[in-house]
Amino acid sequence: MLHDILITLTVLTNFTLVATSRIHKSIQVAAFQGVLLGLLPLTLGLGFHIHILLMAAAAVIVKGWFIPFLLRRALAKVHIHREVHPYIGYTVSLMLCALGTGMSIVLAHNLPLKPGGPFALFVPAALATLFTGFLLLVSRRKAITQVVGYLVLENGIYLFGLMLIEAMPILVETGVLLDLFVGIFVMGIVINHITVAFDSMDTRQLAELKD
Amino acid sequence: MVALYLVLLGAVLWLGSGLAALGRPSERISLPLSLLGSGLGVAGAVLCLVQGSAGAMDFHFAGFPARMAIDALSAAFLLPLHIVAGLGALYGSSYWPMDAPKGTGRSLRFFYALLVSAMSLVFLARQGIFFLLAWEIMAVSAFFLVGTDHEDAKVRRAAWTYLVATHIGTLILTALMVLLARRSGGWLWIPILGATSPKLDMAILVLALFGFGFKAGWIPFHFWLPAAHAGAPSHVSAILSAVMLKSGIYGVLRVSGMLPWIPAGVGGVLLLLGAATALYGVFYALAERDFKRLLAYSSVENIGVIGMGIGLGLTGRATHDSWLTALGFGSALLHVWNHAAFKSLLFFGAGSVLHATETRDMEKLGGLASRMPRTARLLFPGLLAVAALPPFGAFVSEWVLYRGLFAALMRGYPWSAGLALPALAVVGGLAAVAFAKFFGFVFLGTPRSAAAEKAHDPQLPMLIAMGILATICLALGLGSAWLLPAVDRVVAMLAPGASDLLVSSIGHELRVIGGFSGAVLVMGGLAWSWTRRSGKAQNSLPEPNPPTWGCGYIAPTARMQYSADSFSDGWAGLLPGRRIRMRRLKAIFPTPSTFHTELIDSVGLGFLEPRIERLAERSLRLRKLQPGYLTIYLLYVLLALLGVFLWMLLRPWLMLLLGWPP
Fold this sequence. Notes:
The complex is a heterodimer.
Chain A: H1 2-19, H2 23-39, H3 50-78, H4 90-110, H5 122-139, H6 143-162, H7 170-198
Helix pairs in contact in A: 1-2, 1-4, 1-5, 2-3, 2-6, 3-7, 4-5, 5-6, 6-7
Chain B: H1 2-22, H2 27-51, E1 55-61, E2 64-70, H3 72-95, H4 104-124, H5 128-146, H6 153-184, H7 198-216, H8 225-231, H9 234-258, H10 264-287, H11 291-318, H12 322-357, H13 368-371, H14 373-386, H15 393-411, H16 414-443, H17 450-453, H18 460-478, H19 480-494, H20 501-538, H21 564-572, E3 578-582, E4 595-599, H22 604-619, H23 630-658
Antiparallel strand pairs in B: 1-2, 3-4
Helix pairs in contact in B: 1-2, 1-4, 2-3, 3-4, 3-9, 3-12, 3-18, 4-5, 4-9, 5-6, 6-7, 6-8, 7-9, 8-9, 8-11, 9-11, 9-12, 10-11, 10-16, 10-21, 11-12, 11-15, 11-16, 12-14, 12-15, 12-18, 12-19, 14-16, 14-18, 15-16, 15-18, 19-20
């Protein structure tokens, strides 16, 4: 029961993320989503193995605290507060996000998965989060919002992976977290460099690097 | 087993010599190591060919069982490899010194050694993946070798063309290996027994002809060959022409030998393809004025002749005619050896000329016979051999091929053999003309440029290498009858049931040919020494020694001589790839005029290049897909993902709609 609520909240955070224009808020919401996902393994009724506890703690700390901390620090350096003029407007984004969520549900129904169990909502929620992440990546201009999009995308993948939590060795999970961390790190460097090189954080400037 | 270890140790020593070339003491260690490696390789190959002892070694490679083995077929190709490679290293030590500019001396030795050891593995490998790996190392090190002189734009271009061609070949070979693994149920190469599956066997054979054809250089896959072989340093050209092309031949023989059954048409098609290749090669060789390209085109011609032999052998296998099989494969094998010997000799000789004059244009040479007498004398046997004249080996291998073709005519496969016979005759004649041109315009007459005027003989190591090869050329001709047991062993590998056929049937006639030409040679030698002695005694007046083609004029110039182009004009004028630019003489007192000819390979530059360029131009439009915005790229990813999802959603309905079973 509890996990259903957490998943529903995750999907709702997706909508919030798409609709908000304040960068501070979107970082906050992404962190919240990370915490939700981090708590999720504890509610699946699998008991409190050290393995699951460790994973939950790692997810909460990395997704809920460390990465948002890095993003806030980057934000403090560049003095930006809003995402102005995204490629796709907020209303349209919201509609697209809703469309994506609906499609995910249809798709999840048609996937050859085992019905029933505690995972009924997992697949649609995972796909919806994936689409939201992509939507953010595609429609926003500022590098930092794109990083948030990347974070959400990874959250979707993480959610998908949770279904296999019993089968998946801890090494793989830490691998996923590490991957995420490295991704954010690289994008942090990119943010820093385009700010220095072009005096702006608009990723359109990167087109000048094309050969 | 000993043979296998010897060859493997030889390959390891070669690798060591390559690494030593990168280090400090270099030449003093590198050259002996490579010579020792070659010696071991030759010893292993000879041991295997003479005793017929085979050996195999099993191991695991990339998680799959793999095998290296030596048998008569491998040994037949390892032998020329190690002879040519060792002599090439000796030749290269003074041809391309270690301290050549831009470090090319070291990189050349390293990649040369890598090429030799990789090629040894190619001939030893008996497993698909391992073979491909060795093949690829061979191909890539050859790329670096061809591009040794990378300051020259033409050489760079030749190297890239070669790389593309060889990789297309590798691509086809990869498909071939997969099919082969499917057919035999594993990556190991074992003779496939049991039921035939015509479609799969046919596919394997066709892929082998295409994939290995890119390496061997049958038309139309030869387009990379002339430029690559002409642009490489000469001892590299020698090993590329004499051995690396043969790795394609080896591949065809090996793969076809594994199949239980050969479709009947393939042999005839290969016979005709070989005939066409030989004709094409010899015509272009005739028209070429760059003497290294001339040699490269002559390699195309000889590969064609070898291809004819293989085609005949395959026809024999398909019709279970062991006599045809033995003659076909036997002639191909003999020609592989002979071509390895005389073509490396010719390339070494061409390298000496290039070394002395720094030009490859025959119109700028001439009169070198008096300036480089040793080179000329050592090169001459190679010329006679390439023209397939007795007493040299190529005469014997073409003799065997003629026997095979006539036998095929008697057996009633007239269409392919009937076409191939006149083709072979024309090829032999034109090859003689082409090399008369080569020798006549490089070595005879008077020098056409200052560079040729000052030419001189090369250093001793180069002459020694050429001398050994010249001896081998002669020995292959005089002693051909003693090669037959080894040839029989290889033929027995390729087509079971044809054992000892050649020794018992044509052994006698080869002995007669060898003995007769040996006797003629000895008598000719005696006569020559006798006339010389008696001539010396009589000749008291010093001769004025006028220039060749002086025509009795008082002040003849070198430009009055025949030019190489005019010599070959009668035949070469027919070629589609020949471009002539000339200004006609008009007035009564004409102004200075020019005449310029140029030969373009009609497959490579004539046909392929404009099409590839057009394709590249059209592909530029795709650049619009790359706008440089990160978001656009991400959008592509998203669209692809959505596409996959949609496909998964709609697939069941689509299947239903089209009536396919799900």
